[in-house]
């Protein structure tokens, strides 16, 4: 496997010597290396498209579906969420993020590589035929019930042998460990095999 530049110690030391901030290898690099090129995938929870850009550049998927409602949540439980209390301008800010994401991927949307779905993951995923995806990356609503629903729907929509992956597999957070709880339960009960747990990321293989 070819390391990224930031992973090569000599290059990191050179950057430090000349006063540049050291390049941090992405915590999600191992995941990007696991996802096959020319695949059909979905990112659930897009925010401003930063990870979408990494997926596009490194995985080079055939189709990348970006799913996010860009909806401001006003309930108190979301006070520390990027789409709740941390979006100080409320819905205006969410509309702006949506527009910025569309502008950012305008070229890829034009050539059909990126498809943006503005909607909640359960509603959007339900619209795909079973086994449609080679992989999904779950990074939407982190509360237990929502993650559980994303996992169950992904199991239906990802082909046997494909991957269900996601972010923030950790204790705590404003979501009170909901991702970890749901993933642990899912691994115990669903026909999936645990591939990796690293840097708060999870990767599961759907059994054939
Ligand atoms: C942590 S951010 C995603 C970050 C992005 N994956 C990245 O790494 O750059 C969470 C996103 O999930 C979205 N979201 C919240 N509830 C959702 C749902 N039910 N379905 C899909 N996305 C949701 C929010 O609007 C927010 O943009």
Note the beta-strand portion. Answer: 15-25%
Query: Biggest sheet: strands side by side, in what order?
Result: 3-2-1-4-5-7-6
- Using the CA coordinates, give the radius of gyration: 17 Å
Q: How many structural domains? A: 1
CATH homologous superfamily grouping: Vaccinia Virus protein VP39
Please identify, by name, the CATH architecture: 3-Layer(aba) Sandwich
Low-confidence stretches: 1-23
> Approximately how much helix is present in the residues?
25-40%
Q: Give the biggest sheet.
A: 7 strands, mixed
Order of H and E elements: HHEHEHHEHEHEHEE
* Helical stretch tally: 8
> Mean pLDDT across all residues, rounded?
91
Q: What structural class results from the helix and strand content?
A: alpha/beta
Envelope shape: globular
CATH class: Alpha Beta
Distance, first to last CA:
26 Å
Bound molecules: S-adenosylmethionine
CATH topology annotation: Rossmann fold
Q: What can you see in these coordinates?
A:
The protein has one domain: Rossmann fold, CATH 3.40.50. 37% of the residues lie in helices and 21% in strands. It has helices spanning 9-17, 29-34, 50-59, 91-104, 106-110, 121-126, 144-157, 178-189, and strands at 40-44, 63-68, 114-118, 133-138, 158-166, 192-198, 201-206. Strands 3-2-1-4-5-7-6 form a 7-stranded mixed beta sheet, sandwiched between helices. Helix 7 (144-157) crosses helix 8 (178-189). The protein starts with 8 loop residues before the first helix and ends with a strand. The site of S-adenosylmethionine has 19 residues, from strand 1, helix 3 and strand 2. Residues 43-47, 50-51, 67-70, 82-83, 120-121, 139-141, 146 line the site of S-adenosylmethionine (SAM).
